[in-house]
From TrEMBL:
<dbReference type="Pfam" id="PF13692">
    <property type="entry name" value="Glyco_trans_1_4"/>
</dbReference>
<protein>
    <submittedName>
        <fullName>Glycosyltransferase family 4 protein</fullName>
    </submittedName>
</protein>
Amino acid sequence: MAADARRPRVLLLTSVPLDVGDGEEGELALSLAPAMPEVDHFWFRRGREPAAAWRGRSVPKVSRNGAPGLPERLQVAAVGARLARRADLVHAVLSISPGFPAFSRLWLPLLHGRPVLHTVPGVWDPALLARSRPLGPTVALSEVTARALGAAGFGKVPVIGPMIEPAEWQLRPRSVRDPPIVLATGHHDPGGGAYEAIGAAAVAARAGARFQLILAVQGRPGQHVGRLEQALRSRAAQEGLHASEVLGSVEDLPGLLAVSDIVLHLPQTLGGRPDVPFTVLKALATGRPVIMSDLPQFSPLKDAVLRAPVPHRAGHLLLQLLDRPWWWEKLAERGRATVEERFGPARFRSGYAALYRNLLA
């Protein structure tokens, strides 16, 4: 890729330190290191803590808890610009958030001509695009976001979906637990999918379905997660779902997926979160049918998932999946095949390798 014998250095620019995790946005950034072994990636880590055992190299970044507050974002701009001078390429993995328009206008002059590749996991609000400037060639995760970026002046925007390693997410047989477990994922934000999942589960339960609902719901920095989780428990009880559990962060996602039968992911708005959720891909790789909301950003998953325009419809799909083992098996096989064919390392690597070659030439 480079003219000399030295391996190219690529700075992964993210809004938070990657060793404290930033959910799926951070996971997307870190998946680049093993997929691109011919370059040396480096990234921010939290304070002076030891770097996690990821491929590549980390750079300390002060942060109390990893939350992308104003001090952390200012560090990204200042320290990132300084580190960019030691890199051959900057690969920004940043959603279009409320602070992005100002960042995009102020940061580029500090780079002294270093090439930048920008992967956009998601867009908080399409109105932000009109005030934003491209950092460089831009990549989207879905055609919907690619078209929105292109219409806002970001040029031709290729689509490269996220990647998971199928070998790390083994296909599991259907759980034999009784009652079966329905796992709901989402967020506490309005329209984030948590209350929609409770509504869908209540529809299925009132129609006679037997299951236990487990809600794995993430909070954003600054949210009072304890109160939000208690509110979810209260709503579930009001809907007659008395055996429901509410989890925060999940330490053993493979284990949780292994004992689950079906996954619900029903957000009505993404709020800047990735167009293709990693948790959904992992569920499909494990062989767990997924019922999702009908957001246009989810279209890359095509018929690997069931999509419902409203929670009421999702509830009826849940009832049918629980009652029809043959349909469950068909969707489980289709989901695994889709991950292997469309979201495995080969397609991910080839897409980014071509972009890296062009920018490092």
